[in-house]
Amino acid sequence: MEGNRNPYITDLQVEKPRRKYNLTVIDEAGREHKLVIDPEKIPYEDHGLPGSILDICMGNGIELDHACGGVCACSTCHVHVIEGLDSCNEPTDSENDMIDEAYDVKHYSRLGCQCVPNGTKDVVVRIPAVNRNLVREPHGTDSMSTKQD
């Protein structure tokens, strides 16, 4: 199964992991999801590049918005890679252009659909609360949900 890929992005160099590594995803509500990533199970879904943070999140039931379907055409899957950034592929110019459109951008910001850890280090990512696509209905009962009286 191939992940979603933007055919207009040609400068993509991705080293896939060769060994298991730990990925911790801190979601919008501050919950930690600790995963052991097995390269034999990549790709998980068809969201983003195979082995990307988005691919892994979607394959493990962790919600990470991706309005464009994971093809590097928006910034809704913006994440902060707070540990292990140097084990991830380099961002393309297209990804950097999309990150410029995101909120709460840090020097360790990446798009979840494009960021592929190579497995040489454990990785910790945080999903900024401002990433939620406020146009769609919220899921579950998180702090972004609304109640009607």
For the terminal residues, how far apart are their CA atoms?
45 Å
Query: What is the subunit organization of this protein?
Result: single chain
Query: Major sheet, described briefly?
Result: 5 strands, mixed
So how many helices?
A: 2
Query: Based on helices, strands and strand pairing, what is the structural class?
Result: mainly beta
CATH topology descriptor: Ubiquitin-like (UB roll)
- Poorly predicted runs of 5 or more residues: 134-149
Q: What Rg is obtained from the alpha carbons, in whole angstroms?
A: 15 Å
Mean pLDDT, to the nearest integer, reads 84
What is the assigned CATH homologous superfamily?
Answer: Beta-grasp domain
As a percent range, the share of helical residues equals under 10%
For the record, the CATH architecture stands as Roll
- The helix-strand sequence is EEHEHEE
Number of strands: 5
Please give the order of strands in the largest beta sheet. 2-1-5-3-4
Number of separate structural domains: 1
How much strand content do the residues show?
Answer: 15-25%
CATH class: Alpha Beta
What best-fitting shape do the alpha-carbon axes yield? globular
